[in-house]
Amino acid sequence: MKHVLIWCGPQDQPLKEWIPYRDEYLSELLRLEGRGDVERDECPWCGQPSEDDDGEQVPFYRCVQCFGEDLMCKACCVKRHEANPLHVIEKWNRYFFEEVSLKSLGLVVYLGSHKCGEVCNQPRMLGSFTVIHVNGLHDICLAYCDCDKLRAGEWRQQLMRRQWYPATHIDPRTCATFEVLNHFHIMTLQGKVNAYDYYNGLEKLRNNANLKKTKDRFKAFTRVMRQWRHLKMLKRAGRGNDSTRPVEATSNGELGIPCIACPRAGVNLPPGWQDAVLAERFKYFLFLAIDACFRLKRRMVSSEARDPALGSGWSYMVEDKPFRAFLLTITDQDEMCTCSGLAALQQANTKFLRGYATTGVGVGVCARHEFVQRNGAVDLQKGERYANMDYAWASSLRHHDHRLTKVQSYDIVCQWCKKLVDQLKKLLPLVRLNLVLHVVFFVIPKLHIYGHQMLCQLTYSLNWLKGAGRTDGEGVERPWAHMGPVATSTRDMGPGSRHDTLDDHWNHWNFVKMIGLGKSTSLFDG
Which among 40, 115, 197, 359 counts the fewest CB atoms within 10 Å? Predict the structure, then answer.
């Protein structure tokens, strides 16, 4: 393969070349604050003069979102925005442009199933309706269709069919556009932007100096956003395409994205794989890892009764009620650590901070591809207790064929596996049923193993396991860099809202990993 060297100049060179033009750029910005070159006294769209209160004939209005700089009359402005009621309009007051609402100009937004240009003859008028959009909060005049409910649908349906999500299903007076919900969803998944800062940013887009009184719709926005996340997860999992099962019939882990590269019987394994000769069985090893993160705490706010998850156990977190019932049967862990430097065990029975209902999260991933395992995440209450991690591990194994040989990585595996059989006997039948059928090799991640005694390094090293290849077992640590910043949002959430949010972020993590696997395999094909 021939390599070609490409010379790249200094990265700041374009910036230096721009400096002589900044006066010009600044002048163009100031030009947009005035009327520019507009001198005519008639509307360019209708050709009619527009008179103000003093009888002066001059077009006053312009749209910030529409392309172009023409000013128009009031009637044309309203007419042109019947299909764009959320554009920002400015009016020239002979000194500067000031923002005005389309509602104040007389625009009424009609809903329903009428043809273009037609309106309902029996509308239900709402003089004040709030719409949360990517360019701010809008107060509009809305007209529901009441002449043909069978065809037009309920009011909430009329909004949804215009891609406006109602804040309530009963007589909605507030909605958020699909566009703003999608925008925040991507921003919070990629940049970990929290809802409070995002919503306040929307308010400042239209009212940065806080000179106008705006309606507080923050709670409505967060409620709608939680529903939106849940619906998107259901949609992506194909639950809306299954007419034989209602949403309530969703099975455990069904909404989660499984790893497409790990061995899965009936999906990517050849016929007869389970009968492979001993020398080739390593090809069907399933590498797993578990670990805990203590940044993902939750304060003692709300409760499971007041704030339940919208789909408990449907993706990555375990089912809440059975897990809590299991924890009630567990006493403090009294296992002493016989290996040096294992802080997870030394702090297993101590709360990290007072006032927290949850001190962290334990999660399982596939060690080679770092996909979070379905039903493989649990809350921690007193450090990294065996009971919680046992449950997470056993719960995730429900989604894997028991005939696959497992290689389980854990940074404290030397202590954890000692009495694992006795510990697993305490689990609920829900997750314990087929554990006895699994064959498991226990290993310590390659970086963490240097903190263990020499006996552990000889016994649990991946370097000594045939078939391990170059697997380092540290893959479980990498999702924490992605999930850590989420803690600033989830620590003040109720338990259900927090679980839904974590599931959503893990779903995004797995989706990005899945797309990345496709790109990686294409490199080998080329």
Answer: 115
